[in-house]
Give the backbone structure.
Amino acid sequence: MTAATGTKNKLQVGQILVAKGLITEAQIEQAIAEQAARGHKQLLGEVLIDLGFVTADGVMEALAEAYGVPYAKLTPRLVDPHIMDTLPRDYREKHSVIPLFKVRNTLTVAMCEPSNVFLIEEIARMTECTVQVVAVTAADIQMIIGQYVNSANVFVIDDIIEDVSDDAFELIESKVDDIANLEGMAGDSPVIKLVNFFVYSAVKEGASDIHIEPDETQ
């Protein structure tokens, strides 16, 4: 992206924020002056946030509008661990990107720099997919990165109980002396593996209850 293009979009973001009534023209001028005083080491949006004129969500929504991409508020429910591992964990953390879902050959990726054409092209090469960008805040990206482990350590219920008949369910009553034994027992059968993992995790975390909630279809 050229300097001219960067300036154009920077001003456009400011204009969008003003049009939305989130900031005033005077605040834009003050932020531009402050940005210059800081040696142009920060983006205008970052300066606006630092000055308390607007929230990170407000800036990102305006940035998304400026670059013609969707804006989203990330929650853990939007993330599929298997799709997230389309990109290596180190790469996700370094570039603050989260693959969200894949439809055919189109990979939707959440990022806080929707203007970074070079990063988008690199992800497209790495995944051999067409990349659809969703703009999100850096805080949301870090929240997801902090909450999710590698999908190899994640149990997906649909994968575990697929093709399991009703006969596979059985009631097991036994005294547990060492919770570590539950982890070793987890390979006996798909259903036992699932239930034991829930119990083991709950005991390990000191939980008093285990809640399993169905979604709209299951």
